[in-house]
TrEMBL record:
Keyword annotations of the record: Hydrolase
A Pfam entry, by short name: Alpha-amylase
InterPro entries the UniProt entry points to: GH (IPR017853), GH13_cat_dom (IPR006047), O16G_dom_2 (IPR045857)
Organism this protein belongs to: Segatella copri
Glycosyl hydrolase family 13 catalytic domain residues: 8-344
Keyword Hydrolase: yes
SUPFAM superfamilies, alphabetized: (Trans)glycosidases
GO biological process: carbohydrate metabolic process
Protein's name according to its UniProt entry: Alpha-amylase family glycosyl hydrolase
Amino acid sequence: MKQERIYHILIDRFFPMRDEDAKGNFKGGCIKSIIEHLDYIQGLGMSGIMLTPFYKTAAYHGYHIVDFEQVDSHFGTKADMKELVKEVHKRGMVIVADFVANHCHKSCAFFADGKHKDWFCFYKDGSYKCFAGIGALPVFNTKNHEVVEYFTERVLNLCELGFDAIRFDHATGPCYAFWKHLQRTVKLQYPHVRLIGEVWGKMDFKPQCRVRYFINKLRYDAQEAKQLEYSNVFDGILDFEYQHLLCKAVHTGKTIVRNQKLHEEVRLHLARYPTGFQLWLFLDNHDLNRFLFECGGNKALLKEGVAFSKQWDMPYLMFYGTEKELTNENSIFDGTPYADERVRMCLK
């Protein structure tokens, strides 16, 4: 089977063309710009695109959602999105949506109207659980049946729009029962749509089986053990363990393409998952340092990383700008506020 190669786009930073929307941290990237550059993307050898969230948002990156039913006007309209899906499919490509079911922005009507208090995780003292310690991002109570049904309907709507796969942000947040209900319901109507989880980090993670998790953690490492816990929940996951293996190799001064130890580590890693489960390989994304930074600016190593990632029978995600050898000068993990902006530069 030919490997899927998917181009990962941060909508607001991809060839900005809407100067009137370049206000605050919004830079003017939009859906129409993506449509205009589909030939460019396909010319890179990509067979699909993955978008950051496009719903009405309080932040340029799309993850602070205000309304789960409206396309943000900075990015365009629902008609623009329908046209994008149509144009992608016309080229024989696939399109992937990014959906946030864990939290919303505090200005979202569900939180702001005070009528949906049981939709969120409030404590006895009246405070509420928030994502990543950010008070503006209240966390949904995914054990609430109404919340489960609402988000299932929103995902079905994405399927109806024609998306071929859906990435779920912070998949370790919502409870397993939430995901299993959503998966079961979506597959009844859209069996071909792939549901892909972002399983990463420590926040909110609880293993399905503690014994299995701790055994896998001892055998491998914490990230691998987390990922394995979701191998019966989603159709696939974003493979942070793969990215860690490649970073470890370049940090120790090793090459990638002729590195037999790395090749064997990756082969064994992939073999730990059920047949048919998709590990979406990637070198970097909007929450990580650019891979060229991890390579110490060595462009030959970056090219090796791309070539190495293309040889496996798993989807490969390429973050926008990799083809232009974009990088950050300083780590996004140095404690500087909003340091992730360093890897979210505009592609022009």
